[in-house]
Amino acid sequence: MSETPNTPTADGGNLRPTGKRQRAGEATTARATSAQKAPEVVETRRNPFSAIVDFLRGVVSEMGKVIWPTGREMVNYTIIVLLFLVFTTALVGGVDWVSNFALQKIFH
């Protein structure tokens, strides 16, 4: 008779569970394992106008790296936010109404 994982052994102990394990010294996320460039370091210029131009170039560069949502995703996110807003407003309004009703009954 063979033993399956996590079944008790003759001495009462359990076998170790099977599955993927992290090896010592290795990253656990895909982001950490991918070879990414270090962020660019730009030296600050003394001329404030050049510094502003460098800043704006950096902003444009970073905006190019943004993963923008599709139109369908934006509609879904907007609907989710609006539903959450309605739920939260109803919850706060309901708690306010119940507490006001209770206080009116207690003090009048």
Automatic annotation (TrEMBL):
Membrane found in the keyword field: yes
Keyword Kinase in record: no
Keywords attached to this entry: Cell membrane, Membrane, Protein transport, Translocation, Transmembrane, Transmembrane helix, Transport
Cellular localisation: Cell membrane; Membrane
Disordered as annotated region, ranges: 1-42
Gene3D superfamilies: Preprotein translocase secy subunit (1.20.5.1030)
Topology with respect to the bilayer: Single-pass membrane protein
Superkingdom of source: Bacteria
TM region positions: 77-98
Pfam families: SecE (PF00584)
HAMAP family in alphabetical order: SecE
Role: Essential subunit of the Sec protein translocation channel SecYEG. Clamps together the 2 halves of SecY. May contact the channel plug during translocation.
PANTHER family in the cross-refs: PROTEIN TRANSLOCASE SUBUNIT SECE
NCBIfam families to which the protein is assigned, alphabetical: PRK07597.9-4, secE_bact
Oligomer status and interactors: Component of the Sec protein translocase complex. Heterotrimer consisting of SecY, SecE and SecG subunits. The heterotrimers can form oligomers, although 1 heterotrimer is thought to be able to translocate proteins. Interacts with the ribosome. Interacts with SecDF, and other proteins may be involved. Interacts with SecA.
Family indicated by similarity: Belongs to the SecE/SEC61-gamma family.
Full protein name: Protein translocase subunit SecE
Species for this entry: Corynebacterium zhongnanshanii
